[in-house]
């Protein structure tokens, strides 16, 4: 049964419906486990034909099914739990206050490589803890330390360390350059869009679009290889391949020639991002390990190359067929006619990635693939970010406390100065 998405009526946060969470909530209201589990199962079955449901609709459905318990304490306890508590304010390192957002907190956990369900559970645990402590305001670094401790206790050391690395990277303000390569049909655009949204990166660029712009500037008669597809660019160089009899070798030569041309535009995009210290995602079939040689490797930018792949031949074929039904203009039939060339091109790209030490991520399921990309990013960040929890979550608290103390001392000194000025001003006015 496909999972239903629950949309928060207050902040628009989207999470999967989890029967276990509803069961636990009903148990906390005083219901026996078997009764709570049966009611949660009935609610899930009632939503089977829906893709999503709002939290308000879900609550109404649960309350309707609690009718038999209307005269008991269970319904009253459950409804009391639904009442919105006072907002918890989070103070950042600059002293600015913002309401605690469970959706943003969960998203940050997912950025560190945690699954959506685990991130939801950790966010719920942290939020429940703050409510029990009657917290009305918390420092952002204290919140980070609380989250780290919760991860360490409930999920594991490795996941907690990933969160620590991600938090240190975010605090550093360094830009991220994410490069996603792969052959036609492997899902580069879909995964790049999802990752970009999750990371909050506003700049993304596809090499297909760069190539299209170059085609407008350079006529086909001057540079025919640029006006071909990546998997049959060799045909535009046929007159140069009289001595190259092997078809696989011809395919590689044509692709590399086209990729070298598009690389000029890719370099321009990356150089501007580095110059402006802005994060960017560059995706496309022309993203090769050799592109890394053109990018300055020194800080502050963090550069993460990834090669996306569909490792089963029939699965890639089905993905290409799917492109035809969703986006007719992609002309799936033409891709299928050249499927063997596309598959051969993927073999070449994977071999280059392996030789260049570039991470290869298999795209089987979108959610799992996005998570694998996030874990790959954090694994790359581990090379540069090696601080201990007390340095990331505590030292910043001390900095904020020191800034607060300095502000108090400045105010006190100003008051003393005013106290000193008063007699002098009084004396001067009298003597004038």
Amount of beta strand: 5-15%
Helix content: 55-70%
Distance linking N and C termini? 90 Å
Query: Looking at CATH, which topology of the domain at 175-381 would you report?
Result: Rossmann fold
Mean pLDDT: 84
CATH superfamily of the domain at 175-381: P-loop containing nucleotide triphosphate hydrolases
What characteristic shape results from the CA principal axes?
A: elongated
Tally of contiguous helical segments = 16
- Supply Rg: 29 Å
Largest sheet: 5 strands, parallel
| N-to-C order of helices and strands | EEHHEHHEEHHEHHEHEHHEEHHHEHH
CATH top level label of the domain at 175-381: Alpha Beta
Poorly predicted tracts of residues: 395-432
Total E-strand runs: 11
Describe the strand arrangement of the main beta sheet, using strand numbers. Answer: 8-9-7-10-11
> What structural class do helix, strand and pairing data support?
alpha/beta
Q: Any guess at the CATH architecture of the domain at 175-381?
A: 3-Layer(aba) Sandwich
